[in-house]
C-alpha cells in the first residue's frame, strides 16, 4: 500500500460500486478528492532498516485523534527519497487543511512575537549591565585562584601576594570619581563600553606581564582596575535614567547579583582551566569574553530613553513620567554635595562595608587552603557557595525593599532596615568562625555572612539614586572611592596581619568596622532627595 492509498483509506468513503483492482491507481485530483474535509498529520521517520509513515486524523464529532502507521522494510541500497517526498507533498497541497489546526498554531505564533515585542527595553538594559558585572567579577576573582600556582612558580611570600592583590585597587581608585563625572556628562553607554574593553585587554595581558616581572604585573593589574573602576558609576548613571523609582531596588539587586554570579563562575571554572591548560588559560579565556559583550552593548544600548529610537511610546512615557534626571549635568555642585551629612554617612558606610567584602573576595580561597586544608580545586568550589548565596539574597532583598516601599513604608526606613541587616549579619557570622572546627560549618558560616551582606544592595548601594539622582554617578564614584580605599588597605593589611597574627585577628577588624558602620548609617542616612 502506498502513502496516497493509505491516506485515502482514512477518509470517509462515498457509496460507490467496487472497481476493478487491476485498473491503474487514480491520483488525488479534483475528481477523486473526498468531499468531506479531514484534518490530518503525516510524519515520516527514517529508521536504520525501514521507513515508518504515521498518519493521524481528528473525527469531526468526537474531536479525538486516530492514527495508524506503516512499517516498510527496505533493502540497504542508495535511493533518493527527496523526489518522492516532494511529489507526495505536492499531491497533498490541494487538500484543504483543517481549521482546527490553523486555530491552534496561529495564536501561538502571535503570542511568541508579542512576547518578544512587549519585553521592556529598560530590562534589556538591566540584563546587559548584569552581564557586564558578571564579566567584571569573573576577571577579578580569577587572580585569587591563579595566585596559588603563580606564587609557587615565582616564589612569592604572603606579603608579595597581598601587594599583587591590592595593586588592582590602585587603578580602581583613580577612576571612581572621574568615571562618575564622565558618565554624568557624556553618558553611561560610552563609559561602560570603554571600561569593559579596557579591563578585558588588561586581563589577557596578565600572564605576559607576570613572566616579564613583578613590576609589570603590578602595572597591568592597576590598569585592569582603571577599567573596572568606571563600571559602577556608569551603570548607576544609566539606571537612574532608565529605571522608575518603584523598580529601583530590584534592578540594582539584579545588576549587582551579576558580580556575585561572576565570582561563582570564576571560582568554579578557574581550577578546572588551571588543571587542564595551566594558569595563563584563565586570563586568556575570561578576558576574551569582553569583546562579545562589547559588540552586543554597542548595538542594543543607549544612555537614556530619549536616545533610543526603537523604544515603544508606552514604555517611554512610563520611564519619563517617573524619571528624576532628565536634564544633562553641566556642573557638579561639589560644595553642596560634601556639606550634606547623609552623603558622609554613605561614604563612611561604604568604607566599612567594603573592608569585609573585599577581604573575603580576595583572601577566601587562601583561607580555605591554609586553614581548612582544602586543595586548589576544593578551595575554588567551596568559594562558590557564599557568592551563590549572595546572588540569591541580593534579589530577595531587592524584592522585599520594593514591596515595603509599595506598601507605604518610607524609603528612609527601608534603606536603614536593609543596610542594618547587611552590617550586623556578616558581623555575627564572622564572630562564629573562631568557635568552629568543622570545615563544613566554616563554609556555611561564610555563606551566611555573605548572604546577609548582600542586603546592602537595597541599602547603601540604592541610596545614591535616592538622595542625589541627577548626580548618582558622581556620588557613587565618591562613596566607592572610600570603598576602594578599604579594599586597598584591607587586602594589603590582611597579608601583614597573617604574617604577624592569625585569621581571627583579620575577622575582628572586619567585625569592628561593621558595627561602626551600623551606628553611622542609622544616625545620619536618609532615603529622601536632598540634592536637586
TrEMBL record:
Membrane topology per record: Multi-pass membrane protein
Domain of life, source organism: Eukaryota
Transmembrane segments: 123-147, 167-184, 191-210, 216-239, 251-273, 279-298, 343-364, 384-405, 506-524
One Gene Ontology term, aspect cellular component: chloroplast
UniProt-recorded Gene Ontology molecular function terms: phosphate transmembrane transporter activity
Family (UniProt): Belongs to the major facilitator superfamily. Sodium/anion cotransporter (TC 2.A.1.14) family.
Domain Major facilitator superfamily (MFS) profile span(s) in chain numbering: 125-529
Pfam families (alphabetical): MFS_1
Entries under InterPro entries matching the protein: MFS, MFS_dom, MFS_Na/Anion_cotransporter, MFS_trans_sf, SLC17A9-like
Keywords linked to the UniProt accession: Chloroplast, Membrane, Plastid, Transit peptide, Transmembrane, Transmembrane helix
Gene3D superfamilies hit by this protein: MFS general substrate transporter like domains (1.20.1250.20)
Descriptive protein name: Sodium-dependent phosphate transport protein 1, chloroplastic isoform X1
